[in-house]
Amino acid sequence: MSHPAPKPRPTTRKPSDNHSSRIDQHGEDETDKFQKFERWLIANGAQFPCLELRKYDNSDRYKDLDANADAMSSSSNHEEVVEEENESEEKKDGGIIATTEGGNPPSSRQHSNNIDDGSDEMRGVHALTTLPPSAVIVSIPLRCLITVEMGQTTPIGRKILASDLELDAPKHIFLMIYLLWDKWTNGDKSFFAPYYAVLPKRLRNMPIFWDEEELRYLEGSHLLSQISDRIAAITRDYHSVCSAAPEFASISTLEEFTWARTIVCSRNFGLMINGRRTSALVPHADMLNHHRPRETKWTFCEETQCFTITTLKEIGAGEQVYDSYGQKCNHRFLLNYGFCVEKNVEIDGFCPNEISLELGRWGDAFKPEDIYCDGSPQGERGRLYKLYRGDDRECMEKKLAFWTRGDSDVVGVDFFGSSWHALATSVGRAGGSVSSIMESTLGTNPHGMDATGSRLAEALIVPPPSSSPQPIVLPTKRIRVCVSNNENTRVLFSMLRVLACNSAELDRISWGGRTATAAGQRLYGVPGMASPSAPFRTCRDIRYPISLRNERCAMEILREITENALSKYPTSLSQDAADLQDENAYPKYSNKRHAKLQVHGEKEVLHHFALWARTAIHVIDIILHELAHEIKLVTHSVSAANHANGLGDGMSETESLNEELGYDYVIQAMEDDDDCHTTILRYCADVLGAVRRDELNQIATEVMGIERRDHGL
């Protein structure tokens, strides 16, 4: 049960006085705008009596912060159990930039709330007195919030709703519309003028505003494409709004629209207000910086009609008061908030940093004309051909049909890009939805394509520049994965298995047949038998190895993908680690350092999956060697039983299996190795181990069949 925060000590100044004393060296105008902001909130019923907004000067920017962090380190070891997320409370969709180092308080944290108007200042919210757990420390009345509905009721918002525009971020758009329209219409007379005055004028920390030199620090990262896509989406939205409401062009320029989008993206809260889910800008609440694990929670209280922030633990006097922007990958922090976390690790050791892997066509290293179906490698294309050995044209057509089967709106997977929509148009499906295009590939013939689907497949057969055989190109799919055996990792392995399929395996997974074993049922709950009426639905559903051959080929593809991705970066992982130690060349909280943190995190994930692939290939080779040895042993034993003068035990000393190179020995060595990641160990021990047992059982079953036959049973 929450209760009001304790009143500050009588000797404590009022928040405005504290604030004034912190920033007066920057001029009276700047001081006044924050005093006016706080007085405006308090006059309209807001309460934050135990908090003060501090500005960190360049001279002692982190002196107080480091002291607070040290105090937190000594007073809090994070053993306190923090309550689970309130299911009725959304994560904050955006916030002011900040960073922490995982679950443990670092010696220095980033404290931003950057008012980036050239003064290079940072701000944070601090406790004036000790705050107990479950104390309501911030209360902002509904009338001080800017909501989506307010933007929808403006003249511009009504025209947007009437036009039924397809916008990249509709909720963000309506918050932006209100902000821009109100500033233009009412100016200094706006009710929200004191709030507008303290919003940052420039946002140079946000990647969409970086210059070319800063963007070069992200070379090799998929984040560059995301930045480009974000800029393009904002531009499209601006022109769409202007087309629906031409007068908007006189209210806002594209540059102002981009500024508003970034303000809203980095500050809005997803809320349930009076039974309606919406988003809102919440003055003062958006001043809290980020920290994990969370120390406060926020919600909209219908009883008081206020947005509230409540403590989850005791916060000492003078300590900074934090919000949590959620458990996120650094690319999301950087793109949406303008910072990267130095050590983005949760208390349990989980790191949410991700890498976006491209499957289907292998990026810049492998071009469409490299994929030929006549069985002949083309010079340097031989390496790629090895991944498709046995793939004739019929196999590739089957693979295309299964690869494109299913929905396009799968969480974590970007199934089809602009090239796919262009191909759809080229086969006469203009105006149709992606799902209708997909449905056209799911006919009743063995290849899963009707006449329209066949034309779609033909459109994907891209003519090479010469008279060489025509290649078949699979549409690119992207999936984000982190160092974890989570759902996205399982989807990645499923898609790799489809890419590695030969024709017979594609028939089995597409139209029925024995695709899994009892071990598969135990591990993943998949059926041991699939019938033609119950095939695997999509390329993300293959949760158990199809065969050792297929699994090895899938791991080869994974190794190729990760090595290709790593080759695009100009520096190595070890060089990045060394660079981050040099705070003179890579100053803390600089765009240059944040870019380095981003690519360093990506490479860590890539190296993890590259090691996973290499280890899996090694273990599979050991299993294949053991199985070959077992078959040879069984063959000799059967021969000895049928011939009195046979080979005895059938094996010489030199032919016996070296147990030190065997599967059990390798798995034990992995278990004893503290540096072996648990995801790789469990895959090799549980998944590959189950396949190995099934194969050995299959050999034993076949031997029993031979013996029964030989004895006439």
UniProtKB/TrEMBL annotation:
Coiled-coil region list: none
Domain SET: 104-326
SUPFAM superfamilies per record: RuBisCo LSMT C-terminal, substrate-binding domain, SET domain
Residue ranges with Basic and acidic residues bias: 14-31
GO terms, molecular function: methyltransferase activity
Key words of the record: Methyltransferase, S-adenosyl-L-methionine, Transferase
Biased composition (Polar residues): 101-116
Disordered: annotated span: 1-31, 68-121
Record PROSITE patterns: SET
Pfam families: Rubis-subs-bind (PF09273)
Superkingdom of origin: Eukaryota
Keyword flag Amino-acid biosynthesis: no
Any GO BP: methylation
Protein's recorded name: SET domain-containing protein
Organism, scientific name: Cyclotella cryptica
Lineage of the organism: Eukaryota, Sar, Stramenopiles, Ochrophyta, Bacillariophyta
